Amino acid sequence: MTAGPLDARTAGAVRGLAARATAADRVAPLSEQPLLWLTDPEPPAVHVCATDASGEVVGYAQADVGAATWVSAELVVDPSRRRTGIGSRLLGRLRSEAAVVPGRTLQVWAHGDLPAARAFAGDAGMVVVRELWRMRLDLTSPRPERPLPQGVRVRPFVPGQDEEAWRRVNSRAFAYHPEQGRMTSNDLRAREAEPWFDPAGFLLAEREGALLGSVWTKVHPSDEGRDDGHAAAVGEIYVVGVDPDAQGLGLGGALTALGLDHLAARGLSSAILYTGAENTVAIRTYTRLGFTKASADVKFGYGTQGSPSGVTMST
Ligand SMILES: CC(C)(COP(=O)(O)OP(=O)(O)OC[C@H]1O[C@@H](n2cnc3c(N)ncnc32)[C@H](O)[C@@H]1OP(=O)(O)O)[C@@H](O)C(=O)NCCC(=O)NCCS
């Protein structure tokens, strides 16, 4: 178990493992934040690497330990080494990590809700505790008009100037959300340093100089073929957030529509977004704009953790 950054060689080996799993499973096993935390100097996360006798990384798990009552994890086993018990041993280490704080529960994401993950989680006595939908929209079809509320103006995000105001509104808008609501100014700056970051696709809505909400878009060079084998670039409505004081005015729908206009103007033909299956207000907003459900990620969990399982894993 390692806290802090992985050395560059190990981080590269984990990315290689994730790429092999993506090719085999047609869905990426590690999401954006865990990948960024591989090399973050002070991530609120611990790494568990399973290595074979030759030192090759054959399995990896990362536990987000930044919350008081739960640990959220992602784990992956090399496709050529599955059904040999590596996943179970990684899960045992995650359970031990969660149990360090009494009463803290462990939850594990299964991207794409693959049959192997279902069987694995079922074998470990876990049940589905959360579901995240991936929705898709054809950008070449006409979309309904969604005007901005009276007096609201939109402008692009200015790096170095807007971080703190955005973070404040984001944490108010996502106060209920376990990951998005915890995004720090550092997390924001890490994304600004990513090659995909483009302030022209990150729009802030203001009234009389006060920030009310924003839409942030992201262009993926390839769609990873998750639900329909699509290889073309795809645009994502990455984050839409509206301050609780400005909710109910139609701003969320209007901002999403502006984000879609931006992606269409970039020449993209399809857009995706992710939303919690329980977020009926958001799903209604996106459905009105033409989004439909394409696939789901699920999170498995169980109650209070038992005692450490005593497995030995090299890190
Ligand atoms: C899910 C995953 C981590 C399992 O790793 P693994 O090392 O193959 O798991 P284990 O060998 O420890 O399997 C433990 C048990 O899970 C069940 N299981 C695992 N994979 C299975 C499969 N493909 N079909 C049926 N049962 C399966 C079995 O009961 C197995 O015990 P058995 O082999 O003695 O029958 C691996 O398939 C993977 O990396 N998938 C992609 C990433 C992912 O979905 N992660 C989320 C996990 S919740």
Topology as H/E string?
Answer: EHHEEEHEHEEHHEEEHEHE
How many domains would you count in the coordinates? 2
What is the straight-line distance between the termini? 6 Å
Looking at the structure, the CATH topology of the largest domain is Aminopeptidase
Hetero compounds: coenzyme A
Give me the CATH architecture of the largest domain, please. 3-Layer(aba) Sandwich
Quickly name the level 1 CATH class of the largest domain.
Alpha Beta
Report the count of strand segments.
Answer: 12
Give the biggest beta sheet. Answer: 12 strands, mixed
Give the name of the CATH superfamily of the largest domain.
Answer: Gcn5-related N-acetyltransferase (GNAT)
How many whole angstroms does the radius of gyration measure?
A: 20 Å
Structure annotation, total helices? 8
Strand order within the widest beta sheet: 1-2-3-4-5-12-6-11-10-9-8-7
Mean pLDDT: 90
| Residue share in β-strands | 25-35%
Structural class: alpha+beta
Low-confidence stretches: 225-229, 303-315
Shape: globular
Percent helix, as a range, is 25-40%
EC number: 2.3.1.189
Catalytic activity: 1D-myo-inositol 2-(L-cysteinylamino)-2-deoxy-alpha-D-glucopyranoside + acetyl-CoA = mycothiol + CoA + H(+)
GO molecular function: mycothiol synthase activity
Enzyme class: transferase
Overview of the structural elements:
This protein has 315 residues and is an alpha+beta fold. It folds into two domains: 2-130 and 299-304, Gcn5-related N-acetyltransferase (GNAT) (Aminopeptidase, 3-Layer(aba) Sandwich), CATH 3.40.630; 142-289, Aminopeptidase (3-Layer(aba) Sandwich). 29% of the residues lie in helices and 30% in strands. It is built from eight helices and twelve strands. The chain has helices at 8-25, 32-37, 86-99, 115-123, 163-173, 185-192, 251-265, 280-289, and strands at 2-3, 45-51, 57-64, 70-77, 105-110, 127-138, 153-156, 202-207, 210-220, 234-242, 270-276, 292-304. It has a twelve-stranded mixed β-sheet with strand order 1-2-3-4-5-12-6-11-10-9-8-7, with helices on both faces. Helix 7 (251-265) links the parallel strand 10 and strand 11. Helix 7 packs across helix 8. The longest helix has 18 residues, at 8-25. The protein is globular. The protein starts with a strand and ends in an 11-residue tail after the last strand. Residues 225-229 and 303-315 have low confidence and may be disordered. Bound molecules: coenzyme A. The site of coenzyme A (COA) has 23 residues, from helix 1, strand 4, helix 3, strand 5 and helix 4.
